[in-house]
Amino acid sequence: MDRRVTSNQKAWAFTAILRKDLRLELRTGESTITLVFLSLLVLTVLTFALDAPAGDPAIAAGALWVAMIFAGTIGATRALIAEWQNGCVRALLLSPADRAAIYCSKLVASFVFMALAEIAAMVLLVLFFNLDFGIRLVRIAPVLAMGALGFAALATLLATIQVQIRVGDLLLPLLAIPVFVPALIAGVKATNAALAGLPFSGFTQWLKILGACDILFLAGGYLLFEQVISGD
Question: Domain range spanning residue 133?
Fold first, then answer.
């Protein structure tokens, strides 16, 4: 009975915090707009800098993931940073809400923001690189979803460290990008293969690597978040 009550409390805390973050985002659109405009900026610069031929899947895949990483580093963690700046984190820590529920709610909010930005980035990618709308774009959807989930899990944990130290603005990109490199390589390879029209078996190994990275980031964030956020 006690375990069921505890589980219900965790679910209630998770739902309440996530609903609050999503409502704030619907009112202001700050995180999503930031992510979309950063993605647009990165894709624009890469398009003109690389001068890629129309429909080149390798360049398109690389540009898409670079845009996602840079935009996610800056914008996807704003939900947690805003909580810290206005003192709401203190209230959350004093509340009965479980630390794991806080982490999961912030993770899901960051994932939703990144997913919306990725949809906009995909539209821009099609326009900039002259790609055809079709089944190939549908096939890269799970690859991008896995990448966004893993990066959101990693960035949410590291953003908790970032907001507690003076040089935190520099810490997140310095830590997140190198740690995410294996998942980044796997994501680019899988996206390239999907855009090139290769069969699913042609990039299964890259999806396995990406999935393993997601599990590592999710487990690490879930287990370490309580120690990190209570470290002060």
Answer: 2-229
